[in-house]
Specification:
Blueprint (H helix, E strand, L loop, with lengths): L9 H22 L5 H8 L3 H29 L1 H20 L4 H29 L3 H32 L4 H4 L1 H15 L13 H24 L3 H23 L13 H31 L4 H6 L2 H17 L5 H19 L8 H29 L5 H34 L8 H9 L1 H9 L3 H50 L6
Helix pairs in contact: 1-5, 1-6, 1-8, 3-4, 3-5, 3-9, 3-16, 4-5, 4-8, 5-6, 5-16, 6-13, 6-15, 9-10, 9-16, 11-14, 11-15, 11-16, 11-19, 13-15, 14-15, 14-19, 16-19, 17-18, 18-19
């Protein structure tokens, strides 16, 4: 049916260009803060806990609010929610830029996360409504994924350029003109779509879903940073308990926030799993690569950022290539091939450190970028195609939530394996103060700072040991990630084959 449906015209493609604006900005805002951390620390003097919350609160609230905002957009109108979110994002960006205390900046970043959660589900849901033809929708989602990927890559680069000439708050002001442009063009270029129901909003369900996702995300980040602590365990239990209560409530409601029937659709479930797996690999690997480039290979932050450009180019090729290949091959086959490419990229980066240089490392990242971008493009398309048009906002929110949790899990798994190997292998010079030994074993950055204050011989010994230990942990984490991806790809291929067989065995009258 999709192939014979109405073809999109100039107005729909113009609308897609408008939707690229918030997509770029939301992903850019996830990474643009990294380079500004030293300057805002000097200006606001936050404590270590406050600095952590400044960095993390945006992602926490974004993940927690996606599902409620997707459902709300289906009810009040997806364009309306998008424009309200754009207005809020622009205003709060100004508040963040003018923050004078750490608490004020934490609060502004939290509000930015909630505003950002209104934008992503709305953009995907509107694409689902605007592009009813399957091939055109695949191309449109490929472009959307490309914009999202480029936003993450441009964040550090744009942030670095702004910080060369302006104060740290300037990184937030870039959102204001983008949101103003969206507010001007959105009513002209974007259609409205509302799911007409007579049911009230499920405020309790919204609270349960946010509590569950916030607690689970916090638990994963705690596990990545500090290992299996009491706080991580309690957060995990709280998240699972709240999630169980949320799911039980959704089964009883006539108009649930999340239509659990979507998960009985094999195409929806396998696409969601593939999407989460790909982000697991990308975010986990990127975390360690950024440290490896700067702390082991000695590159400056700007040089390290520029070396990510080839991977970004690979991501663009993966996004557009996936849409093109899906015209000739079943999307499940293309997704399996892309997952194998992702696995290959991790395997290349897991090679023994003495056997490759920077070129091979970047080649592995390029393969990873192509594979991940292709999977995200196909999986997002499959998720939206499997969901009814009236549930597109909720389906998009579920997809983005799964991606966010997959990324958090990647940070936890890759980071934990890397730091465990690092701590086991680092050897401190004899006579070093026990407190310095503990700091050196905590992070590679800490070890390099301590090495700089030692004598030449002791400093070189600690530096070499720390960098060697980190490199070994890096390779082990990449190998473990490749093994997880390979196993998951086999399971995904098996699930896709079973689904294809069921589709072929259905009577023609059901299709």
């Amino acid at each position: 049916m999709d192939d014979t449906s109405r073809l999109a015209g100039r107005s729909e493609w113009a609308g897609l260009a408008v939707l690229a604006l918030p997509t770029l900005l939301v992903s850019m805002d996830m990474s643009i803060l990294f380079l500004a951390t030293p300057s805002l620390s000097a200006a606001l003097r936050p404590g270590s806990a406050e600095l952590l919350w400044i960095s993390d609160i945006y992602g926490f609230l974004l993940a927690g609010a996606l599902i409620p905002m997707g459902a709300i957009g289906d009810r009040i109108g997806r364009r309306k929610l998008l424009l309200l979110g754009a207005l809020a994002f622009g205003l709060v960006s100004g508040l963040a830029a003018l923050a004078t205390t750490p608490a004020m900046l934490v609060g502004a970043r939290a509000l930015l996360g909630i505003a950002g959660a209104t934008l992503l589900p709305s953009t995907l849901a509107l694409i689902r409504n605007m592009f009813t033809n399957a091939r055109q929708r695949s191309i449109a989602i490929g472009i959307w994924t490309t914009c999202f990927t480029l936003g993450g890559v441009l964040g550090p680069i744009v942030g670095g350029l702004l910080l060369e000439f302006f104060w740290w708050g300037s990184i937030f002001l870039i959102g204001i003109p983008i949101m103003l442009l969206l507010l001007l063009l959105g009513p002209i270029c974007l259609p409205e779509f509302v799911e007409r129901t007579g049911f009230p909003y499920d405020l309790l369900g919204i609270g349960q879903s946010m509590a569950s996702l916030l607690a689970l995300t916090f638990a994963l980040k705690q596990f990545a940073e500090h290992g299996l602590t009491v706080m991580a365990g309690l957060s995990l239990m709280a998240g699972l308990t709240a999630g169980r209560s949320f799911l039980r409530r959704q089964r009883r409601l006539d108009a649930p926030l999340v239509d659990l029937g979507l998960f009985r659709n094999a195409a929806f479930s396998t696409a969601l799993a593939a999407n989460s797996l790909s982000l697991f690999a990308w975010v986990g690997a990127s975390l360690l690569v950024a440290q490896y480039l700067q702390l082991v290979m000695g590159l400056s932050p700007l040089s390290a950022g520029l070396w990510t450009v080839p991977a970004a180019a690979g991501s663009v090729a993966g996004c557009l290539g996936a849409a093109a290949l899906s015209k000739y091959f079943p999307p499940s086959r293309v997704a399996c091939g892309a997952l194998l490419l992702t696995t290959t990229g991790l395997a290349v980066m897991a090679l023994p450190p003495g056997s490759f240089g920077l070129g091979v490392l970047i080649s592995g990242m390029v393969l990873l970028g192509i594979g991940v971008a292709a999977v995200v493009t196909l999986a997002t398309d499959l998720v939206l195609a499997a969901a009814p048009a009236e549930k597109a906002g909720a389906a998009a929110a579920i997809s983005e939530t799964g991606a966010d949790l997959g990324g958090s899990l990647g940070v936890a798994v890759f980071g934990s394996i890397g730091i465990a190997a690092y701590r086991a292998l680092i050897v401190a010079p004899a006579g070093l103060d026990p407190r310095d030994v503990e700091s050196a074993r905590d992070t590679l950055g800490g070890a390099l700072d301590i090495a700089a204050g030692l004598s030449a011989a002791a400093g070189d010994q600690l530096r070499a040991s720390a960098q060697s230990a980190f490199t070994s942990g890096f390779g082990l984490a990449m190998a473990a990630g490749a093994a997880i991806l390979l196993t998951s790809t086999v399971l995904f291929a098996w699930a896709a084959l079973r689904w294809n067989e069921k589709q072929r065995s259905r009577p023609a009258t059901e299709n």
